[in-house]
Amino acid sequence: MAEKARRYSRKREAIREVLMGTESHPNAEWIFNQLKPQIPDLSLATVYRNLSEMKQNGEVQSVAFWDGKERFDGNVKKHSHFVCEKCGKIDDFHFVAHDTGIDEFAQSHYDGKVDFHSLVFHGRCRDCITE
Description:
globular, single chain, Dna Ligase, domain 1, alpha+beta, three-stranded mixed sheet, 5 helices, 2 domains
């Protein structure tokens, strides 16, 4: 079946730009609040729908859930993350090498098909340690 052609969407592009313009790994509500003043007819459902579509197409990645809300990253290059379990801050860990050997090792022990892995560290950020 042929993939459905996507029409240009001003709202989708605005969502993408906001996500690419931050390193904070926001949730859909944060993105909505950033865009609502410029796009008054934007709905939170539209943000969720577009994020879901962009995630499915590999244009954004889901990093973690914090306080029941999915957090997103516009940087889809392979990298790891750190999630603070106290405040929910998410940082990129570019210094942790992405090891494709893990995928190969997992594949050798699994009957299914391993496509990729994600590595997320959990703990407390510097600010939360000093509080």
